Amino acid sequence: MLPIFMGHITFEQALEKKWNATREAVAQGDVEKVEQLLTTISDINYFSNGSKTTLLAAAALGGNIDMVQLLLSRGAQIVTDGARGNSALENAADGGHEQVMRLLLENGAKVNEEPGPYSTGTALQCAAENGHLSIVQLLVELSANIEGQVYAGSSHNWEPALIRAAESTSEPTAILLLNHGANAKVRSLSGEKAMHIAAKLGKNDLLIHLLDSGIHPDGRTWAGETALYIAATYGHHDLIPRLSRYGANIDATIDATAYKLENELETALHLATKNGHEEFVFQLIKTGAKIDSRTSVGKTALVCAASYGHSKLMELLLRGGADVDATDDRGRTALALAKANNRSNTIEVLSSFGASLLYEPLRDAIVIAGNSLPLSEDDPLFTAWVRGWKVE
Predict the structure, then answer these.
(1) 258 partner at 20 to 30 Å CA-CA among 44, 296, 305, 373?
(2) What global pTM score does this model have?
(3) For 18, left (φ over 0), alpha (ψ -120 to 50), or beta?
(4) Helix (H, G, I), strand (E, B), or coil: what is residue 368?
(5) CA gyration radius for the chain?
């Protein structure tokens, strides 16, 4: 169809202009003004390509039940064609407006309506993402599709309701979905399961429910991380006994085959030490973590602590039995690294535990200018060795 011109604008542009004025009144909750403006609009179900919404959907998002009732009484369609953004039901779920939801459902809204190409998901997914527990409960009772993720012909791959709920501020919402049969093994678009999200956000109750559902405690993200490894990043130490009780490997490293970036294959102990999470390290030691486990480049947690200057953590590790003279693959002890980085507090702690600057067998093997005398700390070659510089 050719555009109809009205002065300098097309009929479509004129309709869009009137529609925008009406939508603004809808957003402001001005029922009287909307009632007047509706007389100027030829199609109450007009879908705005600019805003990707209808008047009814906009009213539902605002949660104004009087506005929704007005639009319904004037012929607004609850179920429109697929070329749209969020439906009225999806918007009401997104905003947590239960009364509007019930009104729409009474007037024919479909719980499992397929989302449009500009939609952010099903009504259940929208409600779960924002942690609206009562609305999720309502939709589940009405047989909403809990696992709904991909719709044929859609360019979107929506994350399941469980993943969205796990990422929300409402832990009970995710637990509710689990109790109604949500699959604990589904993943986010970035490859995390709900268990990994719970570990990242420190959600204890959710983690227990997930483990009770049979999910493996050492299941990995697409990046090769376990829940314990993720918890170590954020310092959620109270998750350690829970994961351990369900059989998590306390000494697991990141999966080298899955991880696409450079990584030294650290355990949770190394990671927590680097990040300075003292209570996390304490709980790991208490749970039986191998205190002198090494990364792929030979670093123990103590060597990591020395590199980052975490003197309190070093004392904690040493009291837990860490080898004070352990070296990395380049033969450097924690004390050597502490001196190289001029960390006085760290040096003091290590010295108080009898640390040697050089690992004894290595020190005895150093040869300078044809003799076998040990290097002096004042020798520039010694300084170069401590700092890891290549000397020819």
Answers:
(1) 305
(2) 0.83
(3) alpha
(4) strand
(5) 31
